[in-house]
């Protein structure tokens, strides 16, 4: 297939491009810079210059493709409303360009919106709709296009998609531990996050693109529930720092913006996903990555 990938030079996107190319697909990747274009060409992918706000580029990439994988996001934690606006506009543009074609449309979603007091499952709908919702309500918006001839597949990624070079949430936690001399967890540390290695995540995206029916919700989850205390202890072992509790009211001061999320339970099952696509994660666990120095750069 000819696959158009947004976020093609990002953390998950770059690994997904590698996975798609290795499987024999042709890839066009959205590139925001000369360096991005060079990186994509070196892999054997075709760059398309543009960014998430360049809706014309998104349309052109979609029109020339047999499938779309949407992984880009502004992740502007200082201005979440802007991230939500851009995400909704991009998803609407991509879905409109795919309308009536029955072409697959895999879009990144998250598990944070599904904090239910239990591990979420693939049958749990996202509670967020409308432009003012987190991610601009993009998952529900995209799923509405199933009835309009789009093979929408919502890929709900674990809050940590880990591996060597990751600059996501775990990197921020490691940096906070280095800065403060304490590897912290909020409260009693019993809240839990799901986790997945980036290579396993990329493989599932490729399987979904090839196999998933319209309306599928995927849980990109290898470890269902790693407690926040266990995460802090693994970071502490790596840095030779103590793991200690941080009061909820002090979380943002200690961790930075991620303190708003670290106390949330974001655990999820992937049993349905694994059974449907024969996906068995084989990559290192989060603790193994931390022990191996995957976050030495943080």
TrEMBL record:
SUPFAM superfamilies cross-referenced by the UniProt entry: NAD(P)-binding Rossmann-fold domains (SSF51735)
Stretches assigned to the NAD-dependent epimerase/dehydratase domain: 3-214
Pfam families: Epimerase
Gene Ontology, cellular component aspect: cytoplasm
Stored Gene3D superfamilies: NAD(P)-binding Rossmann-like Domain
Region ranges (Disordered): 118-137
InterPro entries registered for this protein in UniProt: Epimerase_deHydtase, NAD(P)-bd_dom_sf, NAD(P)-dependent_oxidoreduct
GO molecular function: aldehyde dehydrogenase (NAD+) activity
Protein name, per record: Nucleoside-diphosphate-sugar epimerase
């Amino acid at each position: 297939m000819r696959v158009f990938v947004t976020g093609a030079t990002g953390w998950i996107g770059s690994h997904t491009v590698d996975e798609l190319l290795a499987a024999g697909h042709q890839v066009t990747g959205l590139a925001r810079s000369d360096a991005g274009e060079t990186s994509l060409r070196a892999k054997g992918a075709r760059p398309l210059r543009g960014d998430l706000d360049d809706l014309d580029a998104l349309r052109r990439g979609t029109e020339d493709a047999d499938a779309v994988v949407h992984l880009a996001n502004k992740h502007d934690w200082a201005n979440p409303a802007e991230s939500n606006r851009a995400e909704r506009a991009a998803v609407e543009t991509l879905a409109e360009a795919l309308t009536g074609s029955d072409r697959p449309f895999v879009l990144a979603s998250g598990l944070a919106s599904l904090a239910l007091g239990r591990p979420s499952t693939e049958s749990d709908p996202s509670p967020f709709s409308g432009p003012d919702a987190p991610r601009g309500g993009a998952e529900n918006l995209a799923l509405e296009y199933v009835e309009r001839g789009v093979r929408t597949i919502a890929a709900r990624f674990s809050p940590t998609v880990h591996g060597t070079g990751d600059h996501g949430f775990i990197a921020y936690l490691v940096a906070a531990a280095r800065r403060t001399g304490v590897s912290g967890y909020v409260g009693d540390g019993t809240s839990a996050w799901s986790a997945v290695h980036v290579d396993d995540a990329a493989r599932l995206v490729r399987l979904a693109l090839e196999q998933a029916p319209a309306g599928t919700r995927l849980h990109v989850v290898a470890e269902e529930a790693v407690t926040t205390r266990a995460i802090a202890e693994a970071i502490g072992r790596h840095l030779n720092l103590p793991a200690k509790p941080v009061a909820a009211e002090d979380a943002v001061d200690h961790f930075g913006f991620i303190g708003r999320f670290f106390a949330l339970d974001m655990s999820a099952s992937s049993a349905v996903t694994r059974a449907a696509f024969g996906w068995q994660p084989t990559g290192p666990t989060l603790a193994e990555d931390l022990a191996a120095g995957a976050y030495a750069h943080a």
